[in-house]
Amino acid sequence: MVRTYLLLAWTWLRASAQYPGPLIMMVIGSFIVSGLDVAAIWVIFEHVGSLGGFDLAEVMFLYGAAGLSFALSDILFGNVERLSQHIKAGTFDTMLIRPAGAFVQMATDRFSVQRLGRLAQAAVVLAIALPQLGLPAGRAWMIPVMILCGTVIFASIFTLGGAMQFLLTDAPEVANAFTYGGSALTQYPLSVYGNELVKGVTFIVPLAFVNWQPALFVLDRPDPLGLPYWLRFAAPLAAVVLSVAAALAWRAGIRRYRSTGS
């Protein structure tokens, strides 16, 4: 599967590289647009000393970690959310009769590096924030684990959103509420949100494990909402459970899929 993914992605990359000028401009544009979120955070801190009990460097750390996870998942699997377009056009039927798996074909469909702008922007923010935090090695080890688990969680949500479209071809808007909406939500400390919302993104849709719970361990901060300490280490479990659920949902959708006849 990995080899097939790389081959298909490389094919699309070679096609997009035929027009390097527009591609570079799109990457730069993505970087700039993503930077507007950081500008908004800077404006907030011009008027307040902390946000939800966290200072600027800590908020930038949360933003960078969540942004990096989302950008990686968006580059690798974000195209799955376009499933309904292929179903309506009848092109998904073509994918089903090819020797490569339908999921891999969907994930690599029109694969492009233009989303690298968002990835680069998040990486820059994280690189700026980390030296200001002075994290000890005994806590910094959680950072790559957090980013990996966050990537898996977002990728699983993309997949679940795609699986929904087997039943509801107008479901992309609902899926976007959890993918892009989840990305926006995790850019800030969850302590700025209501208690019920935080519990929902902890125990129902586990967005809290993208960066919030692991970051509480990294930053050596108590949970403002008083949730159990062990949740700081539960990101791998949340990622595994959600990815299994996403895989099962996708397989169920494939089994029950009926062609539109287009």
TrEMBL record:
This is ABC-2 type transport system permease protein. Keywords: Membrane, Transmembrane, Transmembrane helix. The lineage of its organism: Bacteria, Bacillati, Actinomycetota, Actinomycetes, Streptosporangiales. It holds the Pfam family ABC2_membrane_6. The chain crosses the membrane at residues 27-45, 57-77, 119-138, 145-168, 229-250. InterPro entries: ABC-2_transporter-like.
